[in-house]
Amino acid sequence: MDPPRNQTLARVVASAELSYEAIAKGVQAVANASGNSAIRTSKSNVSYWVGGKEPNPDTARYLCEFLSRKVGRPLTLLDLGFNSPGAHSGEANLGLTVEDDPVETLGRIGRADIERRDFLTRAAYSVAAAALPLGVAGEAQARTAHALAGGVAGAAEVAAVRDMVAMFTAIDERHGGQHGRSTVVQYLTDDVRRLCQARFETDDLRKEMFSAAGSLAYLAGWKAYDASEHGLAQRYYLQAFNLARSAENRADQAYVLRILAHHGMDNGRPEHVLGLANAALELSRGVDPATESLFVICRARALAESGQQAEARREAERARELALRGETAEMMGWATMWGTPKATVDSHTAKIYARLGDYAAAEVHHAGARKRYASTEHQRIAALSAAAEGGAQLKQGQIEAACATWDKALDTMTGIRSSRTVKSVRAMRADLAPFRTRGARSALELDERARTWLRQAV
Predict the structure, then answer these.
(1) Where are the domains of the chain?
(2) Which residues face 199 on adjacent strands?
(3) How far apart are CA 5 and CA 1, in angstroms?
(4) Strand, coil or helix: 199
């Protein structure tokens, strides 16, 4: 007997005002953006789902995210009329909140991450969740930590966590996000979670521990992002924000809002990025010029994404002036761990100009970022800056220059384990394809080297 028609899903599909073919293509796009290229959908599949047959769990979650974007409100699997066990478990929405206890939530996320649970590692970037921090950003009152048993934690324990975060971050920046990833998650969900649940000598020390834990959750999110697991990265970032609220630390909150804005832009989802960038800038008021430049350049990039070109250029110039005027030694909070502000401003300014189609200016700023990062421990971003610089050169028809720059990028990528470097090398090969067919020697030689690099890296 055929299952009964899914009237609930049929109503949502009707409200989205999309054809079955458009929905199928949309689900496919969300799956591909989530790194799950194995998903295949067609208008016949959508017809089957409306007819009462349920898709597999991964496909159901991608359908849910796609329809949420189209109807303009967050939907759950139950809202689509699905009755599989996964629809009732709540797993699909784990971490997509800034209201639950962040320590407990991170413990659950971390365990699922270590176990490589598909509902997280293949999760889609949630547009609805991106807006969650905007409703609570800057709240002065944090929730009281749960009453906890065990020993008393003090300044030494806070310092130990901060030292570990600094060490893990340095390894990440030099060798890529996949080095030590499971160790970071295990440390977060075991030792640090227990420290956050300890009793503290003072309330200020409790806040400092939550701030340190938040910086580690941020790093776990960054590592997931570097593996192109964007739904998982978003959950870690949201819990880092949640911990920053618990620590009542405005600078930490601002820094997470900033990365959430960049994360939305990097995912091609601009819906909330300007709001996030504006909220981050507002929370950061009073910081030193070098730190402020990071928030101003984030807003500049968000303005470019929203089509406000003139203001984007003005803000980018303001960020450059702040970075030049500031001193790295004055920087505050988590911002101190991620490279010089001058290099960061150069990198994002290049992305702004590329977005605006000014590839000559993008090339200049990518080169500036590459040179500034080259003399530091930030090997991955130096390599990615070189790769982007070569791409800007190719856009201008400079094939020989692009190949020479990409050759340097491949040199720098040696020993780095990162999904982003793999994607950039694949993009190189795709861009070189027209020149290979014409027999351009520089393109043929570089493509062979890139092909060899990929074979060894993947």
Answers:
(1) 7-93, 101-248, 250-351, 357-458
(2) 152
(3) 12
(4) strand
CA distance 353 to 358: 5
- Tens of pLDDT along 404-416? 999 999 999 988 8
Q: pTM to 2 decimals?
A: 0.75
CATH topology of domain 250-351: 1.25.40
From residue 386, alpha-carbon distances to 1, 334, 344, 352, 418 in Å are 60, 25, 14, 16, 15
The pair phi, psi for residue 153, each rounded to 5°, is: -100, 145
Mean pLDDT, rounded, for 418-447: 91
CA dihedral sign, ordered 130, 132, 134, 136: negative
Helix (H) or strand (E) holding 37: none
Q: How many CB atoms lie within 10 A of CB 4?
A: 9
- Alpha carbon of residue 208 to chain centroid: 25
First-to-final CA distance of the chain? 46
Helix (H, G, I), strand (E, B) or coil at 38: coil
Count other C-beta atoms under 10 Å from residue 201's C-beta: 12
**b/e string for 158-185 if b means 16 or more Cβ within 10 A?**
beebbebbeebbebbbbbbbebbbeebb
Instruction: Find, among 355, 323, 328, the residue nearest to 342 by Cα.
Output: 323
DSSP string over 70-117: HHTS---TGGGT--SHHHHH-GGGTT--SSS-HHHHHHHHHHHHHTT-
Sequence letter at residue 331? M
Q: CB–CB of 267/125 below 8 Å?
A: yes
User: Is residue 260 within 8 Å of 130, Cβ to Cβ?
Assistant: yes
Contact 256, 214 (CB under 8 A): yes
Residue type, 234: Q
C-alpha–C-alpha distance, residues 406 and 389, integer Å: 8
Torsion angle in degrees (nearest 10) through CA of 232, 295, 249, 270: -40
Q: Which residues are bridge partners to 153 per DSSP? A: 200
Among the residue ranges 37-51, 239-253, 303-317, the one predicted with the least confidence is: 37-51
Question: What whole-number distance in Å separates Cα of residue 145 and Cα of residue 102?
Answer: 10
C-alpha to C-alpha distance for 12 and 66, rounded to whole angstroms: 11
